[in-house]
Write a structure and sequence with these properties.
The protein is an alpha+beta fold. Helices cover about 30% and strands about 15% of the residues. The chain has four domains: about 30 residues; about 60 residues, SH3 type barrels (Roll); about 180 residues, Adenoviral Proteinase, Chain (3-Layer(aba) Sandwich), CATH 3.40.395.10; about 40 residues, 2-Layer Sandwich (Herpes Virus-1), CATH 3.30.40.
Length: about 375
């Protein structure tokens, strides 16, 4: 009996070690630490916001700092501008290169110092200046680094892509700033396309083309988060019937790894605006980043590279968002109360309440006016 028990235990330990090794390979493939060297000027990420320990209005990045020493295991010592060093070392995952603003950079070669140049040289210089200017308008250097460094795309790259799509497809509505997910989107009435941040480090694309709401998601496990419920309700309230917003999640190509969701969201948005169904398209994921850089530099988005082999596609799903209250927003938008008379569920904010009242409660519609209330003797 003991020998069988020892065999089972040894087999379990072996299975655990294999699983840990697979998880490590998967993690290392998705998380490649950035390499910094001494003397680099960097910004430090504020983790207080992510941990929800306050500091909501504080800056997401502090600095700039200078790397004074590179330590093993991705750690770095930072020095402030006044020369004092931070007491604790910082992991490279919390750092990013700081680019000095163009306005604050020192001017070079004043008109008095410029040497005389031939007409050919002037023509070449003007041509290079124009090409550099066109690149800076559409693609900043830090955005180029974000795209090519195999990281998740940030809101700057997504919004810049949406601006180009809005110019190329003026008959398609939507294209609202993705940062509105933190405040409020405007309701759309025309056929629209919109890229959303789900609140879980993931980008998806929604559309109301053909009169019904669809969300294209490159993740293998498609989930509608609470943040997405609110965003979809804000954008597409006019598509709701009987206080229910029906959402279709069509089949879409599943991304390899966990950082290319922004690329697929832009690719889905282009195909939708161009009159195609993303469910019928298989993209070449390895060429998407370089393609996006070229498009932003030219100031015009084009169809992303396709591949002949059919990629893996996730399954079609449906999802219903229940809408409540006068505002026609989902339950997760705010705390709710039920009226004792009409039995409607209403958000406390819409009723002007900060705390839940004690005892029976009537909404503002069912509550009698003050002049007709019965006084108890």
């Amino acid at each position: 009996m003991m020998s069988i028990r020892n065999q089972v235990k040894a087999q379990a330990i072996q299975n655990i070690e294999k699983a840990q090794e697979r998880q490590k390979k998967s993690y290392d493939a998705k998380h490649q630490p950035l390499k910094f060297k001494e003397g680099d000027t960097v910004l430090l990420k504020n983790l207080r916001n992510e941990a929800r320990k306050g500091g909501k209005l504080e800056r997401a990045w502090s600095g700039p700092y200078t790397i004074s020493k590179v330590l093993p295991k991705g750690l770095h010592k930072l020095r402030k501008e006044d020369g004092t060093e931070l007491k604790t070392s910082v992991n490279s995952s919390r750092l990013k290169i700081y680019y000095q603003p163009v306005e604050s950079q020192p001017k070079r070669n004043t008109s008095a110092e410029k040497p005389l140049k031939s007409g050919a040289n002037k023509k070449d210089e003007n041509t290079s200046a124009e090409s550099t200017k066109s690149v800076k308008v559409n693609l900043l250097e830090r955005d180029r680094d974000t795209i090519l460094s195999k990281c998740r795309l940030d809101d700057n790259v997504i919004n810049e892509s949406q601006k180009l799509l809005k110019k190329q497809f003026p008959n398609i509505g939507g294209w609202q700033d993705t940062l509105l997910c933190q405040t409020s989107f405007s309701a759309v009435t025309d056929e629209s396309v919109q890229i959303h941040h789900t609140g879980k480090n993931h980008w998806v694309c929604s559309t109301s083309i053909n009169g019904h709401l669809r969300v294209y998601d490159s993740s293998s496990s498609k989930n509608i988060t609470s943040s997405m419920e609110i965003q979809l309700a804000e954008c597409y309230q006019t598509l709701a019937t009987d206080r229910t917003l029906a959402v279709e999640l069509p089949p879409a190509q599943t991304q390899q790894g966990g950082v290319d969701c922004g690329l697929f969201a832009i690719a889905f948005a282009y195909e939708l605006a161009d009159g195609n169904d993303p469910s019928d398209v298989s993209f070449d994921q390895g060429k998407m980043r370089q393609h996006l850089v070229q498009c932003l530099e030219k100031g015009r988005l084009e169809a992303f590279p396709r591949q002949l082999n059919t990629a893996r596609f996730n399954k079609r799903q449906t999802y219903d968002i229940e809408l409540f209250c006068y505002c026609s927003m989902p339950e997760c938008w705010d705390d709710m109360l039920q009226c004792e008379l009409c039995e409607e569920w209403l958000h406390m904010t819409c009723e002007g309440l900060k705390t839940a009242p004690e005892g029976e409660w009537l909404c503002s519609v069912c509550r009698p006016p003050k002049s007709k209330r019965v006084r108890c003797c």
